[in-house]
Specification:
The complex is a heterodimer.
Chain A lengths: L1 H7 L4 H8 L1 H17 L3 H20 L2 H5 L8 H17 L4 H28 L5 H23 L22 E3 L14 E2 L2 E2 L2 H19 L1 H11 L1 H6 L4 H27 L1 E3 L7 H11 L9 H26 L2 H47 L1
Helix pairs in contact in A: 3-14, 4-9, 4-12, 4-13, 4-14, 6-7, 6-8, 6-12, 7-8, 7-12, 10-12, 13-14, 13-15, 14-15
Chain B lengths: L1 H11 L1 H19 L4 H20 L2 H5 L9 H16 L4 H29 L4 H22 L19 E3 L14 E3 L3 E3 L1 H17 L3 H11 L1 H6 L4 H27 L1 E3 L8 H10 L9 H26 L4 H18 L6
Antiparallel strand pairs in B: 1-4, 2-3
Helix pairs in contact in B: 2-13, 3-8, 3-11, 3-12, 3-13, 5-6, 5-11, 6-11, 9-11, 12-13, 12-14, 13-14
Classes of the chains: A mainly alpha, B mainly alpha.
Chain lengths: 376, 347
């Protein structure tokens, strides 16, 4: 916050607003052009969007706490998603159904997520200043371990009795698992239809609860500590905060939330891509949050919801727009992949660039001050 | 004695030692489990020559302090464009190969320039931004592969459909043009791709010589201490841009040599993750985020390709299942994570 204000002074407030909100503004323009082209019906559109908001918001909310602790976008939420998927594999193996099954999956995967989050926290503490790229590579690394465990360990070392989820060779989990047993159990927990559109009240309530939790968490001692750590490690340390521990905790919480987020996501979809389902979780969640106007250093709940609406409108619209414009849906597919990556590249670059200008300005000011003293 | 061992481990790095012994044991196991030693060696040599230049391309940016080039795909795109345009022009043999390289260099210089200017604006966050610059340019290029007006029947879909094929064969154009250049046959299984190795060696030599010129030394100075370099009258930003251009150009050449040996030009999302194996190889060779040399390139490429070739064949024979994909992911990405956590930050 403080950083921004000093920049504002030198700039026209209108220009400043545009630069500050460049990503959401570009997105609104993009979407506004694309929607009429597709010719989608309003009802279809609202149904798609409701589903996507309820499906994705929880995962995006999982990103907020590490940002508070100054660790940037947590690309490591992929680790949480892996933990969630392992829980889902077990409940499918044990043939449990309904909401209890989903809760059990959460229960099983929580310790795994805590463990993975703790590990990620330690690694990221050793890579201060480059948490994002390290978290990103860590997700790739853990994906290898995940594959080793699920594709070779399960049914071999870890007993799996349900042969329908095993590969024909007798061990390793199949590429796709049907989650019919828990399909939309949370979405339909409180059934409600408005104008033929199913409103997933249960999921929305869970998301609301998480929002309240985050607001409350910011006010706790730990939340305050995280914000101090986020602003300045040294200040935090001198005021007696255990910086390393606080940072690890923020990643652990984020990982556990991501794990639940992935389970909620998959109960809506109803089937699971065992080896690919988790890989893009980080990219899409982070891109959505950035589209909502968040930066690497500052994000709040409103960014999550603006982001999820704008980003997923683009997701619904772009294959159709590609088809209408160029006669090929594939074009729209590539376009939305490009936008996801591009948004991240653009926002991160914009933020890093401004951070550098800040630094330069500060240095110039300090130099000028020094010179002033010398003149006196 | 104990201290000495600890020192060595500290200097070389534990992951490298583990990987080295892993590789040695793979080679030792080869004859026991009935994998032909000769074929393995041959594969390692071929892949070494094939991938070497891509790894070499990373050195200049590490030296100038821009970190590991996670945006390597930008150069690859330039290389792909060069290759595709040269085939469109129906050029064959060395003419086609060097035209491809010429066009690729031209495009790489332009892309590299803008990439370098961008990286100057975001000093300190190069790697994470570069990663996403690489990703987004690959996906943007995918759109262009669909809509660019290429006509050659060897490259577009036979039965209608928009755009270029996902994989294009370069057979009949410049397939194995370096590989077969003075190829040496030893026994029945070993064919040394002399031309490819010579080409790689030539580029290594050029890069090595470049770092002994005035501008090359300046680059190293910028990387190790930008303030000092500035006070010596070196233009820091300009030097960094040159290092980025050099890296982009080399990776563009690198991918063409890769295709020459591989036989196919892979478009669309294929280059998406190509930066990581190259980076892992360099790090495996002993480089770090702030330090790299030609020696690291050669050792690293050899070790890394060694593991990639040996793991599948050996493991297939021992446990009758192919875990190589998972092991490859763990080794290469683990190496990168390790290097990132060991950065001595110079600010």
């Amino acid at each position: 916050m403080m950083k921004k204000q000093s920049l504002t002074k030198t700039m026209n407030p209108g220009v400043h607003f545009l630069i500050n909100n460049a990503v959401p503004i570009i997105f609104i323009i993009l979407v506004a052009f694309a929607i009429p082209i597709t010719g989608l019906s309003g009802k279809y559109f609202i149904r798609e969007l409701t589903t996507r908001i309820s499906r994705n918001s929880f995962l995006i909310l999982a990103l907020l706490i590490p940002i508070m602790a100054g660790m940037g976008m947590n690309f490591g939420i992929v680790l949480g998603a892996m933990a969630g998927q392992i829980g889902l594999i077990f409940i499918t193996d044990w043939r449990i159904i309904g909401l209890p099954a989903m809760l059990l999956a959460m229960l099983i995967s929580t310790p795994i997520a805590i463990l993975l989050g703790y590990f990620a926290g330690i690694v990221l503490n050793r890579a201060k200043g480059r948490e994002m790229v390290t978290g990103f590579m860590l997700a790739f690394f853990m994906n290898g371990i995940y594959q080793l465990v699920v594709l070779y360990g399960m049914g071999n070392i870890i007993p799996i009795s349900n042969s329908s989820i095993l590969l024909p060779r007798g061990y390793g989990i199949r590429n796709a698992i049907s989650l019919v047993s828990i399909r939309q159990v949370l979405d339909k927990f409180i059934p409600l239809k408005i104008g033929g559109i199913l409103i997933p009240v249960g999921t929305l309530l869970v998301i609301a609860t998480l929002c309240i939790f985050i607001v409350w968490f910011k006010k706790t001692k730990l939340g305050q500590d995280m914000r101090t750590v986020g602003q300045d490690n040294d200040v935090a340390r001198t005021s007696g905060i255990n910086v390393e521990r606080t940072r690890i905790l923020s990643i652990v919480i984020s990982t556990v939330l991501a794990c639940y987020g992935q389970i909620i996501f998959l109960q809506n979809i109803g089937n699971m891509n065992t080896y690919g389902g988790h890989r893009q979780v980080g990219v899409f969640a982070i891109a959505a949050l950035l589209v909502g106007g968040a930066t690497v250093a500052k994000a709040n709940i409103s960014n999550v919801f603006i982001g999820v609406i704008l980003f997923h409108t683009m997701f619904v619209v772009s294959p159709r727009a590609g088809k209408e414009l160029m006669g090929q849906a594939q074009l729209g597919e590539y376009f939305r992949v490009f936008v996801s990556y591009g948004v991240i590249a653009f926002s991160l670059a914009l933020y890093a660039w401004r951070k550098r200008i800040e630094k330069e300005n500060k240095r110039k000011k300090a130099m000028a001050l020094k010179r002033g003293i010398l003149v006196k | 004695m104990n201290e000495k061992v600890e020192n060595i481990i500290e200097n070389v790095g534990l992951p490298r030692i583990i990987i080295f012994f892993f590789l040695v044991s793979l080679f030792a196991l080869a004859p026991i489990v009935g994998v032909s030693f000769e074929t393995s060696i041959n594969d390692v040599i071929v892949r070494f020559a094939m991938n070497g230049i891509l790894v070499l391309s990373l050195v200049s940016m590490v030296k100038s302090g821009c970190g590991l080039n996670f945006g390597l795909q930008l150069g690859i795109i330039a290389g792909l464009l060069g290759a595709v345009i040269s085939i469109e022009m129906q050029l064959r043999g060395f003419a086609g190969f060097f035209t491809a390289i010429g066009i690729a260099i031209f495009i790489a210089v332009i892309l590299g320039f803008f990439y370098g200017v961008l990286l100057n604006k975001i000093k300190g966050d190069e790697m994470v931004v570069a990663t996403y610059v690489g990703f987004s340019s690959v996906s943007l290029m995918s759109i262009f592969w669909l809509i660019l007006p290429f006509k050659s029947p060897n490259m577009i879909w036979a039965y209608g459909g928009l755009g270029l094929r996902t994989t294009i064969s370069n057979e009949g154009y410049w397939l194995h043009i370096l590989t077969n250049f003075f190829q040496i046959k030893i026994g029945s299984h070993i064919n040394i791709p002399t031309g490819t190795i010579l080409f790689f060696a030539l580029l290594c030599l050029l890069v090595w010589a470049f770092f002994r010129t005035k501008i090359g030394t300046a680059m190293t100075a910028v990387g190790s201490n930008p303030e000092y370099a500035r006070s010596c009258g070196v233009k820091v930003n300009k030097t960094r841009v040159i290092s980025v251009i050099l890296s982009t150009v080399l990776s563009a050449i690198g991918i063409i040599v890769y295709q020459e040996s591989f036989g196919f030009i892979q478009l669309y999302m294929a280059p998406l993750y190509m930066a990581f194996p190259a980076i892992a190889a360099l790090l495996l060779g002993g480089a770090s985020v702030g330090k790299a040399s030609i020696k690291n390139v050669i050792i690293g490429t050899f070790l890394f390709q060694g593991i990639l070739t040996m793991t599948p064949s050996i493991l297939n024979n021992i446990i009758q299942s192919d875990m190589s994909e998972a092991i490859r992911m763990i080794v290469s990405n683990g190496m990168i994570v390790y290097a990132l956590t060991r950065v001595v930050r110079v600010r």
